[in-house]
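lol ok so funny story. i was supposed to be doing the assay writeup but got distracted and ended up predicting the structure for this chain instead. priorities right. anyway since i did it might as well share w the group, maybe its usefull for someone
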Amino acid sequence: MIYEEISDFKNWDHWNPWTNSPNVTNTLGEVTTGINGNYSFTDEYGNGSMTITALEPNKSIESEMEYHTSLSDSKSVVTMTLNPVPEGTEVTWNIKGEDDLKNKVMNFIFGLNLEEEIRPKYKKGLDNIEQYLLVEMKKYEISNPGLVDYGGGYILYKTTSTSMDKFSEEMAVMLQDIMKYMKEENISMYGMPMSIYEKFDYNNNSVIFSAAVPVRDRVIPATDASVLCTYIEPTRALKLL
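and the output, tada:
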């Protein structure tokens, strides 16, 4: 999640202290992520741009920043690296560049220390990433997971393999066959119908699954019957519907 935030400039408004400053006007480029992804900005002193020059997915992103004022021009390399740690992800944000003589003189005259100016902003940005993503993650938390203890028992079932786009159709037909058999044999349901997934084949977009109906007692179908009976051990499950 952190990499998605830092690797696409259109997300920087979520956390970057400069891009969401009222004194800065930002213009996103036609491409905002990947090599050559970019945006430009204008502030009270001049204008500049950020362009992605290198990246390693989920590990690092490097950008070149240019900044132009009426007094000087500068270029810097901005890097953000991600390092997994036991409690999460450690993010290191770094900027590296050289001042020309004119900049050094102006900084001396006005008493500016760029490192002291930038460090609090970078710390604020890193804090903002954490706070923003913690809020975003809560949107996808399962506050009521619906865990249920299924006591197990006997089921009547049919098994087949099909493509995922025909799953619902096959499921309905199989349940109808089971219900028809139960009606003919005067067998009552002992719970809601269910599907049991045996195996997914994502490469072929196919699935092997069983359609099943719980029954109270063991049923021994005739040898030529298309419906089978088995026992399911007690288990804990996630109730979706």
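Residues 222 and 228 are 9 Å apart (CA to CA). The mean pLDDT is 85.
back to the writeup now i swear
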